[in-house]
Design goal:
With 103 residues, this protein is α+β, with helices and mostly antiparallel strands. It is built from 4 helices and 4 strands. It has a single domain, classed as 3-Layer(aba) Sandwich (Glutaredoxin), CATH 3.40.30.10. It has a 4-stranded mixed beta sheet with strand order 2-1-3-4. The longest helix has 12 residues. The protein is globular, with a radius of gyration of 13 Å. The mean pLDDT is 86. It binds glutathione.
Length: 103
């Protein structure tokens, strides 16, 4: 059975951009919830996830935090058709000196 996936993000968050970059490189398209423009999404994240931290991938309503864990999950869930490719150089660039905006 197909799982319901939703990715909670902030566009300026480098960890979110890392996940989004990975998705882009692998042709993965998921519904995005931008908590900076949607207060309802932020409230949902706090209530159901337990904390306001992004990125957070909801898998059938269950939260998965941590960008690397999300990428690992996506690599397994979407592996096959196109093959999962992680661009290590791009990931390092995003990790390097990444500054998180205040929530
Ligand atoms: N280790 C986490 C770091 C995520 C992170 O620090 N996100 C920031 C936004 S850039 C955040 O949500 N901070 C709020 C908090 O941690 O309470 C990851 O890789 O996903």
């Amino acid at each position: 059975m197909e799982q319901k996936l939703e990715l909670y993000i902030m566009p300026t968050c480098p960890y979110c951009r890392k996940v989004l970059l990975y998705m882009d490189q692998n042709g993965i398209d998921l519904p995005l919830r931008d908590i900076t423009v949607d207060p309802g999404s932020r409230d949902f994240l706090k209530r159901e996830g337990g904390k306001v931290q992004v990125p957070c991938l909801f898998i059938d309503g269950k939260p998965l935090y941590e960008s690397d864990d999300i990428i690992t999950y996506l690599a397994e869930a979407f592996d096959g058709a196109d093959g999962a490719v992680i661009d290590e150089e791009a990931r390092e660039r995003l990790d390097d000196g990444a500054a998180c905006p205040l929530l």
